[in-house]
Amino acid sequence: MPNTNHKKGDQDRDVRRAEESDVADKVRAEVEAMHEFLVAWFTGAVANDDDVFQRGFARRFDPGLVLIPPAGNLLTLAGLTKAIRGSHGSNPEFRIAIRDVVLRRELPGLVLVTYQEWQRNAKASTPANNGRVSTALLRPEAVAPGGFAWLHVHECWLPSEIMSAGPYEF
């Protein structure tokens, strides 16, 4: 369905301009770094330490964060933090690959990004090898580890035929 809020071509121009901006590389690096921490945490590759957890995870998020995983339930920062904090070392074979990071919009004080998150050996997901597309709203934040505070994340499963085809060699 076409976006009727823009003149023909405006949407493509916005995405192209965002992808070419200086912010795009920083956003891509933040998305990748946050997921690298999750892998390190779940596999036990980093210390089960409050400072490590704060620097790698908790300080990245706005206090009002909302995460909607593929199942459709709503998680607040408190619920997400409790689940992640309690899962240190719980999945030594877990892996994530981030693909197709696209900065969709760059607005004053906000960026909107989409990306694919591919998981291998995810004990907490069905199927354990899966892929999802995520949309995240971030705000530049100088004190956050990657320079952005995550405000909102919405994840949806990739179509089953795409998930089943993989690839999961990462």
UniProtKB/TrEMBL annotation:
What Pfam families does this protein map onto? S6PP_C (PF08472)
What ranges does the record list as Basic and acidic residues composition bias? 7-22
Please name the SUPFAM superfamilies in this protein's record.
NTF2-like
Locate the region Disordered: 1-22
Domain of life the protein comes from: Bacteria
What residue stretches are annotated with the Sucrose-phosphatase C-terminal domain? 37-158
Query: What is the designated name of this protein?
Result: Sucrose-phosphatase C-terminal domain-containing protein
Q: Which organism is it from?
A: Enhygromyxa salina
